[in-house]
Amino acid sequence: MRHSILVLLLSLPTCQLAAQQQQAKASGAQVARAVDSLALRAHLEFLADDLLEGRRPGTRGGEVAAKYIASQFQRLGLKPAGDSGTYFHQVPIITLTPNPVVRVGTASGSELTYRTDYVLWSLRNEPTTNVSGELVFVGYGINAPEYQWNDYQDLDVKNKIVVALVNDPGLRDSSIFRGPILTYYGRWTYKIEEAQRQGAAGILLVHTTESATYPWTTVQSSWTGPQVRVEKPPTSLLVAGWLNYEAATRLFREAGQDLSRLEQQAHQKGFRAVPLGSQLQATVRSTIQRSRTNNVLGRIPGQGRLAEEMVLIGGHYDHFGIGAPVKGDSIYNGAEDNASGTAAVLAAAEAFVRSGARVGRSLVFIGFAAEESGLLGSEALVARPPFSLRQVAAALNMDGMNLYGRTADIGALGTDQSSLGPTFRQAATAEGLKVTTDPDDLKRGYFFRSDHFPLARAGIPGLSLQAGMSYVDRPAGYGRQKKDEYIAQRYHQPSDEVLPWFTLDGAIQQLRVIVRSAVAVANARSQPVWNETSEFRTAGEERRAGRKSEEG
To answer: How far apart are CA 64 and CA 53, in angstroms?
Structure first.
């Protein structure tokens, strides 16, 4: 008898572990079954209604949307997770409209022509910004330890203006970086951030249609009007801008350098920066406006030792408001982009509550503000978080749900970046779906263009949900056709409305996979980690080291 009792006692921890593992699996299915298409449709139709006037940040419609999300969180019993015990997290916005003057060369150097030769904007929060410094060509302006690439090697750029190429070397040589797949090192935003980390006073990006993928007219329209960003303490980087390729070629020639020859050299590992021996002087006068909007956050507390950690499930609720009429319609409703994703966040929260499932890590549901203005809501969350970012295990983002029908597959940006990839695939398999990735989305760097991304830069692994391309009972190519049709006819247009032929079947499939993924991450023993080849691995390791330091 004593022997039997001893065996029973020794086996108890194993039995408990098995029960916990079974509970984790069961709760994933339990939450997936609780996903409600009626709730999803109700939220979608309200948020995309003309009554909300396109949900532009700082407008009545945007405020109504935020209060609606908060009221739904409160109805479901979610705990406030924003500022000062509320559901709202403030996003301070500063808008500067630049009027720059630039001279390059000797003390009596020639003046460049604004808009034609260059664009320039201030990174300070002041009406007037002056900058003067030596120009230094830094190749691609990349410091990527995982690729053994450092264009700033042994270089001091303090008080200097760096000149950098956009994209990354993989565009020219598919054997390095990720070849035609754009890494974050190729994005213009990265170049600015790295110049800031290096202590430069300013940065100019050399524009070519080949490398930037958009014409100079896009640069003229995008960077000469109001520049909107989250207001936060300034750094040493004073200005940023673009140089037209012809103007850059001329400036390099006047400095005794050949831009095309230096470009070729910059494609090779081991490139060293080249001082141009000329000075840039610039004054940027800006008109300034300040405004505020809010992220909306609600929390379902976790259970047990992991409860202080959390999984974020979010999507942006803003759109473009009331704008230029198109075919008599001036309300940019943003039904697909992103009333659908916001509705999915609310429906996911309701599924967890209705299911009664309890998970280890807390779940924080977020309606992000001002995504269309440049990911400002998620930027603000990283800049001034209402909780420790070191406790965030992962971010699951929903930006545009599948409203076209059931699919045999499902997509997500970021499955190649971290251990969230296998987790997502397991969740998809449980729903009978295959995970596929549109190669065009990788080439265009879509991973860097939604609200999971500022969190990724802070070291938090994330995924951004996408539709599959293989539609059930539809001809081959239907998915591509509908995607292209949306981009051409409705994307960022008043015609992005709730259409009578929309179906929620595909969105329900996606939501079931997301909640299963959330359960898996919330119950896992450890947080997801970045892959060794990811450009965000270093930030992830620094965040993990900080968490371990806090713990002990």
So the answer is: 10
Q: Output DSSP code: residue 78.
A: P
Q: CA 445 to CA 453: how far, in whole Å? A: 11
Q: Exposed/middle/buried for 105, CB within 10 Å: 0-12, 13-18, 19+?
A: middle
Residue type, 123: L
Residue 106: pLDDT band with limits 50, 70, 90 = low
pLDDT value at residue 180:
86
324-381 per-position pLDDT tens digit: 999 999 999 999 999 999 999 999 999 999 999 999 999 999 999 999 999 999 999 9
What integer pLDDT is reported at residue 213 of this predicted model? Answer: 74
| Domain spans in the chain, listed from the N-terminal domain onward | 28-401
DSSP lists the bridge partners of residue 122 as: 239
136: burial class by Cβ within 10 Å (0-12, 13-18, 19+)? buried
- Tokens found for residue 243: 């140089």
Q: Identity (one letter) of the amino acid at 509?
A: Q
What is d(CA 75, CA 80) in angstroms, rounded to the nearest whole number? 12
Nearest to 377 by CA among 510, 236, 228: 228
**Tens-place pLDDT, residues 429-472:** 999 999 999 888 988 889 999 999 999 999 999 999 999 999 99
Taking Cα atoms as reference points, which of 252, 253, 248 lies closest to residue 166?
248
Alpha helices in 146-208 (DSSP H): 188-197
